[in-house]
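Async update (no meeting this week)

Hi team, since we skipped the sync, here's where things stand on the single-chain job. The sequence we agreed to prioritize is pasted below, unchanged from the tracker. I ran it this morning and attached the output directly underneath so nobody has to dig for it. Comments welcome in thread, and please keep replies under the output.
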Amino acid sequence: LDTPGHQDFSEDTYRTLMAADSAVMVIDGAKGVEAQTRKLFKVCARRHIPIFTFINKMDREARDSFELVDEIEHELGIPCCPVNWPIGSGKGFKGVYDRKSEKVLIFHDTQKGTKEGEIEEISLNDDSLRSYVTEDEEELLREELELLDGASAEFDQEEVSCGRLSPVFFGSALTNFGVETFLQHFLRMTNSPLPRMSDAGLIDPMENDFSAFVFKIQANMNKNHRDRVAFMRIVSGHFDANMEVYHVQGRKKARLSQPQQMMADDRHVVSEAWAGDIIGVFDPGIYSIGDTVCMPGQNFRFGGIPTFAPEHFARVRQMDTMKRKQFTKGIEEIAQEGAIQVFQEFHTGMEEIIVGVVGVLQLDVLRFRLESEYKVDIRMESLPYEVIRWIENPLEVDVENLEGTTDMKKVKDMRGNPLLLFEHEWSVGMTLDRNKGLKLTEFGGWESED
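Output:
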């Protein structure tokens, strides 16, 4: 499962991580640990899944390798065990040394990832190594390896499996160097599909019947057919395309039609799949992110997928009132994908809405998709709100007559749940003080995995 690295799309990455049993953390050799890496690492740590680190772009000028490993350990709080170690960086990048096999893998520049390229393995004590590495480079490598042996954490498979130790690899994805080696180690070190908690207890991937949950929805993947695909992670059992399943949230039996798997732009129909697989199925508009499907006669739910609270808000209006139907459909479908959150002021309709997003770039994506996929032009006005709180006990308080601050705005989400928008964090506390018994929460409409 490949996810965006840009911080404005971190929520999409977050949801995808909920479907994964292990994660590969790709670190830029020049930049080190970035803000979105810290945010998403917490998700992995919370689920205790194995985390593999690949320090990328070693064919460009990179920071000191010890400095990078030290930063990962201190910034993210996880011990690291380098499985291989780089020889130089940028134009001086010669390859990596595999600490287990005690061999040097020589770097040859390939055609920018279009092929695997040749990899030469040479023993550190082999005289032919001097054809590729200078005496000074070899001496520096030996010094660094000696330091590594004394300072880095020792490899422990059990610690890796519990997410308490991260194996570290160096390479260059663009030139395809070190990727194959990494994948071979990854397959040896990673888990088979893990059990997952439901409200009926732990669901074992091997012993239980078929079950799955929806972690992503994407509309208009094929513009010619206006298709909508629900991506499911199979948690347990065996899936057969002809089988009947039970959609728990929809409370009815269904068939998962047009099951398919994808690799980049290629997609192919599958007739069967097993625990750990990801399948995309045709969605006629009945599935939502977090939904559970299982066998008829069973009824349980996997933990919901939490969401980040929006940090940017904008008022969105349709330009052409004759296209209200297309505008409403586009907004609702994009919201169901989890890309945006939609709010309405009380006593208003869908002709004017407030959109909340985690990253401001998602607003540009919203405008582009409405124009290109739904043929709707919009006017967008940025709003000053930065803090959002759902009203946890709307039946116990008078929502219409809440006494708030001057920067507070009352709105409701697509499910009718009331919430408050604020320009300043301190306004939340002041509003709570002025309305005794009022309870506010950062999340609404989503069950936490905890």
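Quick observations from my side:
The chain has nine helices and 28 strands.
The first strand starts at residue 23 and ends at 28.
Reply here if anything looks off.
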